[in-house]
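Hey,
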Amino acid sequence: MKTIMSLIMTVALLVSGFAVQSYAETTSELPKGDFYNLKIIGVPKDKKAPMNNNDGTRIFVPLYGESNIWLREGDFKVLDANGTDEDDAEFQLPNPDPNNDGTTEYTVYVRALGKPGGEASINTCGTDADTGETYCSDDKLVVTRTAGQSPWTNASGELFYIYTDTDGDGEPERYNLFNEQFEDYYWEYDNNGLKVAQLRFYRGVSTQVQ
């Protein structure tokens, strides 16, 4: 029955004009169509120049260590490319799932580039609007650069949602980016030598998450 319902939903979305991708898909091929490309670049030394509103499509972070990429709602744009200073970086992107129904309005794919051996983890976090407590998702993305051609991974679940237990019942709830439950959303980027994490946001490509 679950397989039949999944097939019905997939057909319905295809008829409505969406290409449907399964969550956590890893592939060497990507959907066709319009996309926004973002590179998160690890650098050995901090950047000194101001990088606010410079219309680039890259963000600099420490090659080793943690930094935050603050998330704002709006059309795709790098608002602050310098993630090596005390202000951290800032990135703008549309609300991926306004209804929090588990079906995204666009999809993000991620792959690792650069010299083999580097790794970075990306975790979606936010501050509870009522209590001021910070929550990070139980579902963290790990991007590893191995030898050979780097595959793409559908990271919509990890980067577009916070899965966390806020009501203390022992089960994580799902919160979409820019949900009113939280404020000050950000990606916590913990780098361990990864030169480049490349992200592609495909407009009109929907992903179903849990």
